[in-house]
Amino acid sequence: MSSPLPGHGVEGNWEDTGLIWRADVIVMNGNLHYGPWTNRQRVLLQSFFFPFPYRNLTIDSPPQIGEQRKHPAFDVSLTFEGTNNLRVPTREPSKDWKFLENASDEILGETKSKDVRPYGWIDIKIKQGGSIHWKLPMISDYNGYVTTLSIALTEIEIFTSVNYSILLSSEKIEV
Fold first, then answer.
1. Over residues 53-80, mean pLDDT
2. Whether the Cβ atoms of residue 32 and residue 40 lie closer than 8 Å to each other
3. For the whole model, what pTM was predicted?
4. 64, 8 contact by CB (below 8 A)
5. What is the DSSP letter of 43?
6. Could you report the per-residue pLDDT of 138-148, keeping only the tens digit for each?
7. Which of 119, 117, 71, 129 is nearest to 91 (CA)?
8. Which residues pair with 118 in a beta bridge?
9. Would you give the DSSP letter of residue 94?
């Protein structure tokens, strides 16, 4: 049931406000790279949408007639179509000592060797599609905020740069 007047709430239930706040993203035959820069942007976006954990939560009361309506949740849907690849670069800090001598010379502009440490990676190939749904509540009740994440991917192969072979292969993964 939606409100008879725009901008005014419906008495009694958050689910009946009729407001939807969502982002639908469709990736078709894409190559996604998730590295340090992407992770920093994720942190900025997540801090914008997530409630701050250091505040005391107040329980939001259900909307009353005449009050400004609130979005009950922010829904994000990521759908994969076709064959998509996700590359996550990795670098193990315990191996850095082997490359520190050459790296310090390169910083000074004196390259003694072309032996620069390459990064490793994990490739996730999604062949037949799938979806990721994330629901982030914008209101709190007696249970606080309950965020839900559901992942359903089909025909997955995970490769690694360590041995260039398949680490995991599955027809379907659901979380």
1. 80
2. no
3. 0.66
4. no
5. H
6. 888 777 778 89
7. 119
8. none
9. G
